[in-house]
Write a structure and sequence with these properties.
The complex is a heterodimer of chains A (88) and B (674). By secondary structure, chain A is an alpha+beta fold. Chain A contains two helices and six strands, in the order E-E-H-E-E-E-H-E. In chain A, strand 3 and strand 4 form a beta hairpin. Chain A starts with 17 loop residues before the first strand and ends with a strand. Among the domains of chain B are: 175 residues, 3-Layer(aba) Sandwich (Rossmann fold), CATH 3.40.50; 85 residues, Helix Hairpins (Orthogonal Bundle), CATH 1.10.287.1770. Chain B has 30 helices and ten strands. The radius of gyration of chain B is 29 Å and the shape is elongated. In chain B, 47% of the residues are buried. The chains are: A alpha+beta (88), B alpha/beta (674). At the A-B interface, helix 1 and strand 5 of A face helix 4, helix 12, helix 16 and strand 10 of B.
């Protein structure tokens, strides 16, 4: 969680990437890529969801919005939004 | 301060230092601003925008500081009006110093805004706030190391305790008077994009409007920033424009890459300065969130808080309301009657029944709004409101809205005006409009007051009837939201992205100032309109003939009687409904006048019971709940949507809904032989 990688995008392979929605409460992963329009991606990137950053799923009930911790901040994301964050 | 600084200071003795306060949401920026400006601040709108602007002044070391509070934003992209306002203010108004408030507990993320501010080339001072929270979490931050790395003055602060505030002003003063020593470290872009950025920079060189830093514009173009791209397109020669477009097509991921670059730069800056604990301790926020965001307990807590708020409103607010009505409004009326004893009766009536009654309407809102604003202020300040939005998100989705709409709608239970104004917290235009349009369907205290007064007169089980009406009202709200979402305001559901801030102990100073400002802005926005319309209605209900029975408004009521008959209402009930357009509780006063009683409760009661059968009474109550928004709400909708189109739509829509509700209720109740 506390590690931040400098520039690891190129080293990550897309093969094992999956949607953030698939993480269960308590699991951790690193951000692989963001999908969606420029506005949406730049918003999430500004909040700290940049490739290589660690995320921890705080609450994923299987319905309703999820809560993740990224860069020491708790963020609630709607399921549609969370789906567009790919992690590994 | 050096000798040069002293001289510069002396030269601009009469001048003040212009400071803009920047920061992300939840970093304690408003606490700092309130601490600095106190009651000197004035709240308005940014020119042409429905975004709140706060400005104020403070004195320190015999110098005047003019402060502007920029909207709280995570970055300076073109994604929201707030971000555009913040960056345009810095570029165009060129404040002497920008103070960036940063949260020490989420240091890297809140430095992101600093990484966006630095390329704008404006002198910067960082207020490193909440160091106490960071320490509780086991973080150690070497301020001097961070300051050396960034090349920007940094002041450690605990704004809630007033710590660091004087040092902050001292550093601002130093920088404003002597900027020679200020050499900030500029954030750099990721290596793989450096070349492209330089290419764009050289292409736009010489074409950038005055005041815009070249590198910053190039960076924004690379990020795919709409506003800057549109600004530059007509200024660039054809060939350069085409090349820029080509570069952008090849680097579609640049918006994320640029953000990553900023974060890696931040990581390098803080590496030497911050010592983090290996495993974070279980914090207060972790423990509280186990309850507050729990699918069942979270909902229970929210319902509990709402119940307490309503209980407070009725046990404290309503008696206070009556007290104000009796002593302040009554007192004013007595004084006016005495002063105008020799004046013509119509003048006395204008002052007492028109103007003072209008003032009374405005005043009696105060206790209720005070309670609602205070509850809201406390919940916002401790960090709970974001959890309420999270818990409510599921339900708000029914209407194509998300959790953030819950907050303004909750305010609507107090009064619909702050609900409409509160919809500003929602980023998406569409969701904001939808929230504004359904807000008048939240039963406000004034409407609940009418129900509380009339239900016992007509029915033997008033509590049951009141609950039924409330449920019906909320049901209609959800249905209307659904309808508007599916038919009129079509579009995909809006993105729900919301920070859940750390919980902290409430800061009473911040809460008090917030409540005061909200009350003041209600008074400014709704107060004058209610007053004017009260006087106009007074005229309509007195002329010609001098009594309500012979007035224009009665004529209108009689004209509409055939329509009223559809739901069993005679002209007097129609007039009562019409008068509730000024303020919902006016319905009671009008009924009082029309049904013979001059304020003596018993006579209205018996007259109403004799004249109105239960099915018509129920239809009247239903219509009263669903009727068109009061004039203050309509004017708030007009202000917030910046058009006449939407307030007109809201009035027509609710007119239709209430007519349908009234007719259906009357028919159904007659059928069931109530």
């Amino acid at each position: 969680m506390d590690k931040h990688y400098e520039d690891t995008t190129s080293r990550l392979s897309a093969d094992h990437a999956f949607s953030l929605l698939q993480l269960k409460s308590g699991e951790t992963a690193t951000v692989h890529s963001l999908r969606g329009g420029t506005g949406f991606r730049s918003r999430l990137a500004a909040l700290g969801f940049t490739p290589g950053t660690g995320v921890k799923m705080m609450q994923n009930l299987g319905y309703g919005p999820i809560i993740v911790t990224v860069r020491d901040t708790r963020i609630a994301l709607g399921r549609g939004e969370a789906y567009k964050v790919w992690v590994q | 301060m050096g000798a040069i600084g002293q001289r510069a200071m002396a030269e601009q003795e009469s001048k003040s230092i212009r400071v803009a306060l920047a920061g992300q949401p939840n970093v304690g920026k408003s606490t700092v601003f309130n601490l600095l400006t106190g009651l000197s601040q004035h709240v308005g709108n940014w020119p042409g925008k429905t975004v709140e602007q706060k400005a104020g002044t403070c004195e320190f070391d015999s110098l005047r500081f003019d402060l502007v509070d920029l909207p709280g934003t995570y970055s300076l992209s073109a994604n929201s009006p707030e971000e555009l306002i913040a960056r345009e203010y810095i570029i165009k108004e060129k404040p002497d110093v920008v103070v960036a408030i940063v949260n020490a507990a989420t240091l890297e993320r809140s430095l992101y805004l600093v990484a966006e501010l630095l390329p704008l080339g404006v002198p910067l001072v960082i207020g490193l706030n909440m160091i106490d929270v960071a320490e509780q979490q086991g973080l150690t931050i070497e301020t001097h190391v961070l300051e050396a790395a960034l090349g920007v003055p940094i002041v450690p602060m605990v704004a809630t305790k007033g710590q660091g505030i004087h040092e902050l002003l001292a550093r601002v003063q130093d920088l404003a008077c002597d900027g020679a020593a200020y050499q900030p470290n500029a954030p750099d872009i990721r290596a793989d994009h450096k070349e492209v950025l330089q290419r764009i920079e050289s292409l736009i060189d010489g074409h950038v409007p005055d005041g815009y830093p070249n590198t910053w514009v190039a960076l924004k173009i690379l990020e795919g920033d709409d506003q800057i791209t549109q600004m530059m397109r007509p200024r660039l020669p054809e060939a350069a424009s085409r090349e820029v477009d080509g570069i952008l097509r090849q680097h579609e991921d640049a918006c994320v890459a640029v953000a990553s670059g900023r974060y890696s730069w931040i990581a390098r800056m803080v590496r030497a300065a911050v010592v983090k604990p290996k495993a974070g301790p279980i914090t207060r926020t972790d423990r509280l969130d186990r309850w507050a965001t729990h699918p069942i307990w979270g909902l229970m807590i929210l319902v509990g808080i709402l119940a307490v708020t309503f209980a407070l409103t009725y046990t404290l607010g309503s008696p206070l309301q009556e007290w104000m009505d009796r002593y302040i409004v009554g007192g004013l009326a007595t004084v006016a009657s005495r002063a105008l004893a020799d004046a013509p009766p119509w003048l006395l009536s204008l002052v007492v029944d028109g103007a003072i009654a209008g003032v009374g309407t405005v005043l009696t809102f105060f206790p209720i709004l005070l309670i609602f604003f205070a509850v809201l202020g406390i919940l916002e300040d401790v960090g709970y409101m974001a959890r309420a939005a999270y818990v409510m998100d599921r339900f708000m989705h029914l209407m194509g809205l998300h959790g953030k709409s819950f907050l303004p709608l909750f305010l609507g239970f107090g009064c619909n005006v702050p609900a409409v104004m509160g919809a500003r917290v929602i980023e998406s235009q569409r969701a904001r409009l939808l929230t504004i349009l359904v807000a008048p369907l939240v039963p406000c205290t004034a409407r609940m007051g009418v129900i509380a007064f009339l239900a016992p007169i007509f029915f033997r089980q008033p509590t049951l009837i009141s609950w039924g009406l409330l449920t019906l009202n909320l049901g209609v709200l959800v249905l209307s939201g659904l309808l508007l979402h599916k038919i009129i305001l079509k579009g995909e559901s809006v993105a729900f992205i919301m920070e859940l801030p750390l919980y902290h102990v409430p800061n009473w100073h911040t809460i008090t100032i917030g409540v005061w400002q909200r009350l003041l802005s209600f008074l400014e926005k709704a107060g004058t309109i209610i007053l004017v319309v009260s006087v106009v209605t007074w005229a309509l209900s007195r002329f010609p003939g001098g009594t309500l029975e012979t007035s224009w408004i009665a004529a209108l009521g009689r004209g509409l009687e055939p329509l009223g008959n559809l739901m069993g209402l005679d002209w007097r009930l129609v007039v009562a409904l019409l008068s509730s357009f000024i303020a919902k509780e006016n319905a009671i006063a009008t009924l009082g006048v029309l049904f013979g009683g001059s304020g003596a409760g018993t006579s209205i009661t018996s007259a109403l019971r004799a004249a109105v059968a239960p099915p018509a009474a129920l239809a009247f109550l239903v219509m009263q709940m669903l009727f068109i928004p009061c004039v203050a709400t309509v004017s708030a909708i007009r202000q917030e949507t910046n058009s006449w189109h939407w307030p007109t739509f809201a009035v027509l829509f609710l007119l239709l809904v209430s007519l349908a509700g009234g007719i259906a209720t009357f028919r159904l109740a007659t059928l069931l032989a109530l």
